[in-house]
Design goal:
The protein is 14% helix and 41% strand. It has a seven-stranded antiparallel β-sheet with strand order 1-2-3-5-6-7-4.
Length: 145
Amino acid sequence: MSALSRDAILPLVPHAGEMCLLDEVLDWSAASISCRSRRYAAPANPLRRAGGTLGSATAIEIAAQAMALHARLTAPPGGTPAQGLLAALRDVHLAAPLLENSGPLNITATRLLGDASGASYRFEVANGTGALVTGRATVLFGAAP
């Protein structure tokens, strides 16, 4: 499907303002989504530690935002958006302890299986030199509050 700008992403995800770390959707389909983040490197990133560093596990949050966006884009039209809960992580590999500013991050999430109650995704967060964080996530869907 078509690319989306940050302005198009913001009304579709529950992550508001600086907490939304996605800048654009490069492509998406019924099975997967590909996004880009530059704002993860911003000094105002709310996930930064007190000393200003950004642990590489924060890339899981960026991937989870891509999964939330994918669930919203592939939801039946006209329905009430389901709230998602990250229930489990499996086979997570962190290539380094810190997420350094090394250019834009490319985020891919591929739905392995799913239905109205939840989904399982494989995800990868990479930069120009390779994968920084990979793994699988299980997301449970519930009614929106």
